[in-house]
Hints:
The protein is of the alpha/beta class and 269 residues long. The protein is 32% helix and 12% strand.
Amino acid sequence: xxxxxxxxxxxxxxxxxxxxxxxxxxxxxxxxxxxxxxxxxxxxxxxxxxxxxxxxxxxxxxxxxxxxxxxxxxxxxxxxxxxxxxxxxxxxxxxxxxxxxxxxxxxxxxxxxxxxxxxxxxxxxxxxxxxxxxxxxxxxxxxxxxxxxxxxxxxxxxxxxxxxxxxxxxxxxxxxxxxxxxxxxxxxxxxxxxxxxxxxxxxxxxxxxxxxxxxxxxxxxxxxxxxxxxxxxxxxxxxxxxxxxxxxxxxxxxxxxxxxxxxxxxxxx
Length: 269
């Protein structure tokens, strides 16, 4: 009984002096024969959701875009012309217009888009250069005078050739400068400043000093990377529709002159 009373007194002192919850066992400060287990409180914290990395977000967006693309591809092709101004081009057949209608639309869109009314009108042609089995039309170049010129100033053309008769022909046909290597130094010194440069193939190796100065204007043996593709400016948009159509017809007639009519269609697409 004595031991029990001492234990109770010990417990009372501990509780009075330390009125708090403990997370572990407490050993009494006074000697006694009994150790008491004080009730413990257990704590729990809510875990934060794992952060989404940028990589995961990009992958999710990429997958969504792929799904959208596949969904669009599954749409059936529509018939006829679109009724709205904004539409998906791939869902409608390619629109082909007559020359007059195409020029009218160009002028209409210029007003709607507030673009330059004097902007250039360009013609892109894809040519069928194949003649038959293992044969094709050789690349060609032509000089054409438009029925309705659109340049405000006459361009100065320099012709490089070492042949005296070719120099005379060039001058007779309006070349501002014609000659051989004697023109090279004059161009380097800016004594003459042509707008365009033309050269015969034989003199090309002697014109290498001009490559750095002329850059894109340096005479080339080929006009474009693709032998079957032709691009040229034919008018400005402020010209009348009849004038634009006449210049267009002049280019097409000149191109057709390089392929016999009995060999079929000349323009691809």
